[in-house]
Design a protein that fits this description.
With about 130 residues, this protein is an alpha+beta fold. Helix content is about 20%, strand content about 25%. The longest helix has 12 residues. The chain is flat.
């Protein structure tokens, strides 16, 4: 899948891009809590993919992890939103909000621009 995304992204170089999903990989060891060391070559390939397609991780708000094994022996941040530099030029205050999981083992991930400009406030007067 990463190869297909890489080809697609290279065609859209310099376009506003956002890729969101369950990547089943972590970027750093700190993104997974488990009883044993669990950082593999797969994660190195994931980091190479991110670098190759020139994507940036948006800051997170809320929970630190996005996936919980049912017995909570493993927790990870495998779901994420990554964007192009061009995205951040348009939506520079983008954040990933990680909310509690409701039914599934994955948490709800919401992408927001934390500083929305709604334009000038309408004029109001109170007539007495």
């Amino acid at each position: 899948m990463w190869d297909e995304i890489s080809v697609f992204r290279m065609r859209l170089l310099n376009w506003v891009s956002c890729i969101v999903g369950n990547f089943n990989s972590i970027k750093r060891k700190e993104e997974r809590k488990t009883s044993g060391s669990d950082y593999s070559r797969k994660n190195l390939r994931f980091n190479n993919f991110i670098e190759k397609v020139d994507l940036l991780d948006i800051p997170i708000v809320g929970k630190k992890f996005t996936w919980y094994k049912s017995n909570r022996t493993i927790i990870s941040r495998i779901d994420r939103a990554m964007v192009s530099k061009e995205w951040l030029e348009v939506w520079s205050n983008s954040r990933q909000f990680i909310y509690s999981r409701i039914v599934f083992v994955h948490c709800v991930l919401v992408l927001k621009d934390s500083c929305s400009d709604w334009g000038p406030k309408p004029f109001r007067s109170l007539d007495g």
